[in-house]
């Protein structure tokens, strides 16, 4: 019944928040209140709220907010990365954290392939030439890209997303190298024809495309820096679908300017979005998309469903799928 | 030695200062090359020396006016597999052979077809534009694309390129259906998980993404017209890597404006390039690339090697590996 539905706090519907088309997934099980409405009377609304649904890292799960939510049981994050959450702190106030692994993987892997191909084949430049009202004869003889079929793809981070990227690139007869904290099983490797590189340097030196698909942790912050970019081939392309901080952006700018690598394609930067005068925005060999790796209607819907399911499980005292705890 | 090598007339891009000048050495293995611009400075002098016409992206055009100036011509060796730009029968009637380059274009073209599909589905160009827009101050939560994984891919034309598109889409768990004059073998179908669709209409109705990869023949001109577009899903995307005239462009413009289909991604148009005021250039749901299907350094090199090998064989009176004798196969 309506009255029995628990209350949940979200940032907003539309705008920078949750897509309006998918809110029905939440309202089926929750009364939702936007952050703006909540702030109009936190003392009234606060004690009712059992769940916070985080989308695009908002509303920010900081102590000031949590202090207003005495009945809060769960912060359910939309997305698999929770690097923006202090999970240890949130757990310490008796609140669980959940994320949305697996449902995001296919869409993100598709995006990774799209970025790789679009960069390799210079689609953005091609389209600009094709539609340029001033171009006299836009035949693109000088727009030669690099071959994808049969090239070598080096995947750094062979989790769910990295593995799906390997599955997709197999169809292009790409030779696949990968580096991961843990080696995958022989069956997994054989299924996609991937070769393990215990030394990431070997992968960097051997790859035509370097794909970064790791979690953001203290160990992976700045994983791709000046040294790594120098090890890469001057004809190589860097693709990042992890987090902006995994790549040293200043080093990347320098590498692109002096030709240490051919190009970069980034769905993630730091910060997001970049300051409007950032050099990455004006380099011709950089393709940037605004963190849309999971942005399909179907995947977004699945993510929100997972958030709702996880939050309900916590509130109802059931086994919680997709809980994230501090390591 | 230079003097002993037969002369070949080549497109300007392969000449001095041309964009493909770096690849000219491939041609110079067997030929002394003269580019069209230089040839035209003194056709009476140069013409009688030319034994081979090496074409790149339709140039130099093998028209009667040019061929008339080349009395010693043995072969028109064209880079690429399409020969719809050549009047093969007429050229043959002059005692000149025609050759193309099958077998080396398919990978790059299939890669581009997948690129167009993904770029359109996931709004890559729009994303890039927003990412760079001076007015962008926050991430756009409403920039949404369409799921590629698990979607239904319809391939019209299951030749070399179509088949390679099927191979690539298998990795995305796409459901692959195809329509072709001839059905492929069961082994070939199973290898890529493709289902044959006897009826083009059925393929149109069921596809989320339709990739057109046919040869241009009298039968395929206007293959995708008003009727075919109306059968497609409103959420469907059309990708064309064949030839511009395979699609009825006016019908396509109407369909894109009315939302009859979601979007189109075209590497080929008619003409090429489109007039600068053509509506296709301004539709937000049309992604157009300037016939870049084979535009990689490696593939361009492979094509030119084949162009040269074909031409060298013809000039030596040997069998030409990729001779084209019938215009419409």
TrEMBL record, chain A:
Name used for this protein in its record: Glyoxylate reductase/hydroxypyruvate reductase
Keywords from the named record: Oxidoreductase
Residue ranges occupied by any D-isomer specific 2-hydroxyacid dehydrogenase catalytic domain in the UniProt entry: 48-324
Species annotation: Betta splendens
Pfam short name (any one): 2-Hacid_dh_C
InterPro entries: D-isomer_2-hydroxyacid_DH (IPR050223), D-isomer_2_OHA_DH_cat_dom (IPR006139), D-isomer_DH_NAD-bd (IPR006140), NAD(P)-bd_dom_sf (IPR036291)
One annotated Gene Ontology cellular component of this protein: cytosol
Top-level taxon of the source organism: Eukaryota
Molecular functions (GO terms): glyoxylate reductase (NADPH) activity; hydroxypyruvate reductase [NAD(P)H] activity; NAD binding
Similarity remark: Belongs to the D-isomer specific 2-hydroxyacid dehydrogenase family.
Domain D-isomer specific 2-hydroxyacid dehydrogenase NAD-binding, residue spans: 113-293
PANTHER family assigned: 2-HYDROXYACID DEHYDROGENASE-RELATED, GLYOXYLATE REDUCTASE 1
Regions that span the bilayer: none
UniProtKB/TrEMBL annotation, chain B:
An MF annotation (GO) of this entry: NAD binding
Keyword entries, A-Z: Oxidoreductase
Cited SUPFAM superfamilies: Formate/glycerate dehydrogenase catalytic domain-like (SSF52283), NAD(P)-binding Rossmann-fold domains (SSF51735)
Record's GO cellular component terms: cytosol
Top-level taxon in the UniProt lineage: Eukaryota
Family: Belongs to the D-isomer specific 2-hydroxyacid dehydrogenase family.
Name used for this protein in its record: Glyoxylate reductase/hydroxypyruvate reductase
């Amino acid at each position: 019944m309506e009255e029995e539905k628990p209350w949940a706090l979200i940032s907003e519907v539309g705008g920078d928040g949750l897509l309006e088309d998918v809110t029905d997934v939440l309202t089926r099980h929750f009364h939702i209140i936007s952050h703006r409405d909540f702030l109009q009377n936190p003392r009234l609304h606060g004690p009712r709220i059992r769940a916070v649904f985080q989308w695009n890292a908002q509303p920010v799960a900081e102590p000031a907010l949590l202090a207003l939510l005495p009945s809060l049981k769960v912060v359910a994050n939309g997305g698999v990365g929770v690097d923006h959450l202090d999970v240890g702190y949130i757990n310490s106030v008796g609140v669980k954290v959940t994320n949305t692994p697996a449902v995001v993987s296919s869409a993100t892997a598709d995006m990774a392939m799209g970025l790789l191909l679009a960069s390799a084949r210079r689609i953005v430049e091609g389209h600009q030439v094709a539609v340029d009202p001033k171009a006299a004869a836009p035949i693109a003889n000088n727009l030669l890209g690099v071959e994808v079929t049969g090239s070598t793809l080096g995947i750094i981070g062979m989790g769910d997303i990295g593995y799906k990227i390997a599955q997709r690139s197999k169809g292009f007869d790409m030779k696949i190298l990968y580096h991961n904290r843990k080696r995958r099983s022989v069956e997994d490797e054989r299924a996609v024809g991937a070769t393990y590189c215990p030394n990431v340097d070997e992968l960097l030196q051997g790859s035509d495309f370097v794909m970064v698909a790791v979690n953001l942790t203290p160990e992976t912050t700045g994983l791709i820096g000046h040294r790594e970019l120098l090890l890469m081939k001057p004809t190589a392309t860097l693709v990042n679908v992890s987090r902006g901080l995994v790549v040293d952006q200043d080093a990347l700018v320098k590498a692109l300017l002096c030709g240490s690598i051919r190009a970069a394609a980034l769905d993630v930067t730091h910060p997001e979005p970049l300051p409007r005068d950032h050099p990455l925005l004006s380099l011709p060999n950089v393709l940037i998309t605004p963190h849309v790796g999971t942005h399909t209607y179907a995947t977004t819907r699945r993510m929100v469903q997972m958030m709702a399911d996880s939050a309900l499980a916590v509130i109802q005292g059931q086994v919680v799928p997709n809980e994230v705890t501090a390591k | 030695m230079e003097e002993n090598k037969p002369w070949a007339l080549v497109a300007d891009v392969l000449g001095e200062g041309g964009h493909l000048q770096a690849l000219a050495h491939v041609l110079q293995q067997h030929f002394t090359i003269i580019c069209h611009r230089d040839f035209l400075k003194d056709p009476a002098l140069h013409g009688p020396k030319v034994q081979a016409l090496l074409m790149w992206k339709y140039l130099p055009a093998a028209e009667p006016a040019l061929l008339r100036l080349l009395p010693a011509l043995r072969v028109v060796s064209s880079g690429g597999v399409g020969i719809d730009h050549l009047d093969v029968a007429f050229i043959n009637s002059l005692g000149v052979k025609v050759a193309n380059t099958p077998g080396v274009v398919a990978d790059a073209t299939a890669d581009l077809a997948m690129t167009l599909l993904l770029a359109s589905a996931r709004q890559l160009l729009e994303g890039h534009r927003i990412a760079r827009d001076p007015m962008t101050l926050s991430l756009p939560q409403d920039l949404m694309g369409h799921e590629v994984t698990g979607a239904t891919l319809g391939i019209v034309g299951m030749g070399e390129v179509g088949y390679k598109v099927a191979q690539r889409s298998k990795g995305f768990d796409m459901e692959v259906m195809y329509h072709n004059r001839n059905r492929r073998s069961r082994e070939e179908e199973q290898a890529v998980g493709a289902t044959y669709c006897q009826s083009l209409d059925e393929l149109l109705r069921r596809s989320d993404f339709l990739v057109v990869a046919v040869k241009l023949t009298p039968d395929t001109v206007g293959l995708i017209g008003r009727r075919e577009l109306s059968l497609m899903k409103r959420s469907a995307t059309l990708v064309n890597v064949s030839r511009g005239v395979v699609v009825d462009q006016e019908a396509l413009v109407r369909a894109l404006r009315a939302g009859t289909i979601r979007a189109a991604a075209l590497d080929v148009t008619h003409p090429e390039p489109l007039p600068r005021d053509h509506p296709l250039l301004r539709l937000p749901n049309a992604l157009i690339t300037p016939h870049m299907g084979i535009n990689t350094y490696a593939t361009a090199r492979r094509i030119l090697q084949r162009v040269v090998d074909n031409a060298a064989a013809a000039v030596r009176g040997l069998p030409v590996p990729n001779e084209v004798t019938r215009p419409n196969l």
